[in-house]
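2024-03-11 09:14:02 INFO worker-7 job=invfold-0412 stage=load source=structure_tokens
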């Protein structure tokens, strides 16, 4: 059966609430599971239609919970919030769905506000969504959630947000201190890679920190795009007693200069996954009360599955930065280590687990493989 016909049957099965039929049609076909339709992925479609059981089944099958798409170009959480499905919103949050605030159209709180879903707005606020982020564009200027709720005439939601603002203790001093640390970190990073072009902020429910991802375009000296985080080091990681272990860390990931990083391209999982994993790894120590250090390898599932349809890379290895100035950045918070994330193949992961990550790095170096992402590079684990 052709994919077009299968897709038609899946869409029909979702409309009819036929959970098992959806599962049977998709089977183990990962590409079909995460395929992009004009209405987003099947997870977007099920979330917007209020099909909780199908949402659960799709996630169980391995659907990417944070794929961008749908009517608003956001995640499935945004679709559910806009459509008023509180049960799905709660479930997606419990699964670690990103509360994407990069654009007002993607912001699930704005979706709840525009459609008057008070219960969902309350749930998102309780989960820690940023109510202070402001947007400016053709239709709005410096507008945060409170201003938007007032503009939309949503009085109950206005009261919710006002109560939240009134109930928050004064954290100005802490924020100022964190910002100073961020500035020091970025000063070191920009010395090595050049000026910041763009910054994306977001909050993940259950995490103790809010992570910013900064984008540095290629330059004459660096033929790659640099992504670097700040915010991960606002709180210490749970760490061992080893003196060599850093309590505070930030992350860096290098993309080829041809990588498409504009907003429209980030709707495609083939382009978005490095940014998504950078965010995910930054939150791991704060959500799961653990730590990361050089040599840690994080697989995409077990066994590891390719990050996207255009590559067989399937795990992330945490590595020491090649830039010496980033290995120990001194701030008022303490010493901060900036690790570089390097995507690797399943066979390379197995090799590192058997002989150590230093051995794998040596093999990669011998083959001329750098720390810049290369989707089709040689697999030294074979």
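2024-03-11 09:14:09 INFO worker-7 stage=emit residues=382
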């Amino acid at each position: 059966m052709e994919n077009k016909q299968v897709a038609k049957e899946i869409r029909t099965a979702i409309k009819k609430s036929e959970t098992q039929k959806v599962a049977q049609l998709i089977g183990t076909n990962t590409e079909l599971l995460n395929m992009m339709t004009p209405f987003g992925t099947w997870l977007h479609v099920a979330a917007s239609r209020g099909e909780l059981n199908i949402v659960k089944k799709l996630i169980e099958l391995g659907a990417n919970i944070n794929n961008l798409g749908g009517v608003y170009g956001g995640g499935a959480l945004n679709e559910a919030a806009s459509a008023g499905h509180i049960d799905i919103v709660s479930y997606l949050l419990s699964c670690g769905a990103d509360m994407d605030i990069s654009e007002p159209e993607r912001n699930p709180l704005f979706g709840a506000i525009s459609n008057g879903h008070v219960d969902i707005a309350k749930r998102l606020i309780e989960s820690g969504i940023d109510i202070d982020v402001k947007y400016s564009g053709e239709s709005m200027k410096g507008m945060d959630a409170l201003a938007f709720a007032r503009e939309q005439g949503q009085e109950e939601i206005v009261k919710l947000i006002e109560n939240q603002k009134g109930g928050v203790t004064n954290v100005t001093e802490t924020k100022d201190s964190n910002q100073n640390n961020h500035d020091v970190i970025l000063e070191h990073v920009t010395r090595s890679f050049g000026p910041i072009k763009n910054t994306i902020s977001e909050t993940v429910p259950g995490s103790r920190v809010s992570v910013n991802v900064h984008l540095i375009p290629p330059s004459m000296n660096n033929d790659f795009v640099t992504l670097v985080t700040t915010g991960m080091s606002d709180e210490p990681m749970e760490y061992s007693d080893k003196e060599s272990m850093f309590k505070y860390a930030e992350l860096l990931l290098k993309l080829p200069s041809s990588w498409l990083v504009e907003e429209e391209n980030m709707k495609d999982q083939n382009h978005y996954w490095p940014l998504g994993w950078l965010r995910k790894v930054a939150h791991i120590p704060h959500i799961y009360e653990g730590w990361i250090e050089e040599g840690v390898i994080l697989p995409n599932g077990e066994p590891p599955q390719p990050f996207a349809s255009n590559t067989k890379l399937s795990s992330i290895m945490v590595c020491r930065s090649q830039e010496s100035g980033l290995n120990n950045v001194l701030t008022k918070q303490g010493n901060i280590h900036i690790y570089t994330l390097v995507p690797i193949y399943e066979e390379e992961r197995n090799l590192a687990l058997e002989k150590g990550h230093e051995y794998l790095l040596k093999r990669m170096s011998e083959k001329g493989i750098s720390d810049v992402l290369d989707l089709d590079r040689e697999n030294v684990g074979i």
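2024-03-11 09:14:09 INFO worker-7 stage=report msg="Residues 168-173, 240-244 have pLDDT under 50 and may be disordered."
2024-03-11 09:14:10 INFO worker-7 job finished
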